[in-house]
Amino acid sequence: MNRHTRENQSILLPNGRRLGYAEYGVAGGSPVLFFHGAPGSRHVHADMANIAEQRGVRLIAPERPGYGLSDPQPGRTVLDWPDDIVALADALGLERFTIIGFSMGSAYALACASRLPRRVAKIALVGALAPHDAPGVTEGMSPSVSGLYALAQSNPAELRNIFTALAPSPAALIAAMSASLPQWDKDEVNKRTAEFEAEYTQMLRGGIEGVASDFVLVSKDWGFPLADIGTEACLWCGANDCNTPPAMTAYLSSILPNNRTFMLPGEGHLSLYAHWAEILERSV
Q1: In a 10 Å sphere around its CB, with 0-12 CB exposed, 13-18 middle and 19+ buried, how is residue 227 labelled?
Q2: I need a surface site. Which of 75, 140, 153, 156 has the fewest CB within 10 A?
Q3: What is the pTM of this model?
Q4: Is the pLDDT of residue 2 over 90?
Q5: Beta 57-62 vs 18-25: how paired, if at all?
């Protein structure tokens, strides 16, 4: 196999913005796009890259506007993202591909499935986010996370101030991210501290605008009907997830016409890392 790692890549989009991305795995392998969470970046943890290579996958991790190498996009919406993905896929010669959306990235995976049904073969949603106006979906969410979403709706400027205070460094961001997590997640963070530092170092090259605007955007109406998405979807959720609680996955499972759901007893929000091999295997 031809190992393929290119971590600091970018393309110019038709509107002149730069889109940053990284590639891992096998050149010419089955194409899988990975949409990071918030916080997050194009940096994929080393064991995830190794598993992609072992599975013969070409893993591509784009950064949303304002993250890492990607230029900001003032006034963007969730539904602007599929246009960026079309430009990236065309530049990389990808006709059809799978998308794995983690946490905040799941909303953007759903947007692509909605707008690009001929190009998105499957989606995997891990620790998935549901629209906040859906009934009961915030049940079980930690107060610190629900507080961020409340600010996103009521006072975006103050939300940006909070993120600026939370993220003076990757280490500070990890500490802030971990504070409200259950012990299962804290153990996962402790095992991966160096990888999270590398991931957040890349994110913070673009400041906090990417993550702040993500919270604002997903707290509003997403702009497309979930019930019309016919793309095959696998949903993965830790039963103790308090960032995107099981109520969100239950709602998505009830409304997406073609899905299979995997509940993970005893696990939390970061189950992506514990189950990456199986998630990837079911995605190609």
Answers
A1: exposed
A2: 75
A3: 0.97
A4: no
A5: antiparallel
Quote the DSSP letter at residue 229: -
**Domain span at 174:** 6-283
Total domains in the fold of the chain: 1
52 CB-near residues (< 8 Å, 6+ apart): 24, 25, 26, 29, 32, 44, 58, 59, 280
How far is the C-alpha of 78 from the C-alpha of 111, rounded, in Å? Answer: 7
Q: Which residues contact 36 (CB under 8 A, 6 or more apart)?
A: 42, 61, 63, 64, 67, 102, 104, 105, 199
The beta-strand segments (E) located in 127-252 are 232-238
Q: What is the pLDDT of residue 1?
A: 47
The pLDDT, as a whole number, for residue 191 is 96
Residue 224 lies in a domain: yes
Query: DSSP class of residue 16?
Result: S
Average pLDDT score over residue span 169-180:
90
Comparing CA positions, the residue from 113, 127, 77 lying closest to residue 236 is: 127
Start-to-end CA distance of the chain, whole Å, equals 17
Measure the CA–CA gap between 259 and 122, rounded to whole angstroms. Answer: 10
C-alpha 272/C-alpha 61 separation (Å) is 15
| Close Cβ partners of 275 (under 8 Å, ≥ 6 residues apart) | 126, 236, 262, 264
Question: Tell me, what amino acid is at 92?
Answer: L
> Distance between CA 273 and CA 260 in Å, rounded?
19
Which stretch of 37-41, 63-67, 177-181, 232-236 has the lowest confidence by average pLDDT? 177-181
Residue 162, phi then psi, degrees to nearest 5: -65, -45
- In a domain? residue 141: yes
| Gyration radius of the chain's alpha carbons | 17
- CATH code of residue 220: 3.40.50.1820
CA pair distance 94, 43, nearest whole angstrom: 21
1 is a domain residue: no
